[in-house]
Amino acid sequence: MTRPKTSRFRHFLSRLRHMKGATGMTNRTVRLLSGEQYFSEKLSIFVNRNAESYELTEHHHDFLEFSCVAEGSGTHHAGGEANAVTPGDLFIIPMGVSHVFRPSSSAKNAPLIVYNCIVTMEAAHELLSGVPGGEELRQLLSMPGIFQAKDRSGEAHRLFSAMHREYAAERPGRQAALHAGLLQLFVFFSRLQQGADEGMDMPITNGMDEVMDWLRRHYADPFAVEELACRIGVGERQFQRLFAKHAGMNITQYVQRLRIEAACRLLLSTDRKVGDIAESVGYSHMPFFNSLFKKHIGLTPRAYRKSAVHR
């Protein structure tokens, strides 16, 4: 968890109290972080993207914390133990449990970047009480210790990143967006916890999320369905069936949609030639690209660009 900035931090330090670790170690100082320094009357959620350092000592807090290691490497210290962390490591730190992140190096070019999303217990209970199905997520509020998992699909990183942007931008609808994002975190971590409790290291559904994430990042590249099926350990026919169930369309349709969406963005944000855009999203045959684009959008690429100019 990061520290409040400048004057807020100095004020915060004056309020910190020392306490002995739960393990009885007399040479370990554990500090209390109070949510009063992070929350306001209108917003009981705080999100940051922090470069961890050695300035903050081991601490516990009076709020619930979700964390995602985004960049770099280091260690996570909790209860007198230290475990290595790398990008994709996820944590839920309950209220009252002590911990701290430390970078592997103090060099500025090798930071340990961690997203943190914290929420008051009252706000968390209120959120889960107000949505259908929220009761089954409540187990995350009563965990006795730290829960750790791995973000294999990249979905958690996207959720944390989106919440951080919402928190920092302070746009209209910010409070609603942050609560919606927090609910997504609860769902995501609850599924991870259920998988861990059932001894599933990487359920097929999570594997399919990883495949879809790979396709979103490499939509313009050629791929073999057989290789994607191997990623989740199933045969090609089973993969095709599972993909259609997971995505609501077959893999060809899914990739075509990704490519056409990318083409739309490029048509509106650049003045590149249509042929160049088609090539960049994975289509070298212009008649096919034009036909596919019109099928999805209802206009040819040139007509789509022209219509956007006159809106």
From TrEMBL:
Key words of the record: DNA-binding, Transcription, Transcription regulation
Single annotated GO MF: sequence-specific DNA binding
Provenance organism: Paenibacillus nanensis
UniProt protein name: AraC family transcriptional regulator
InterPro entries: AraC-bd, Homeodomain-like_sf, HTH-like, HTH_AraC, HTH_AraC-typ_CS, RmlC-like_jellyroll, Tscrpt_reg_AraC-type_HTH
SUPFAM superfamilies found in the cross-reference section: Homeodomain-like (SSF46689), Regulatory protein AraC (SSF51215)
Domain spans labelled HTH araC/xylS-type: 209-307
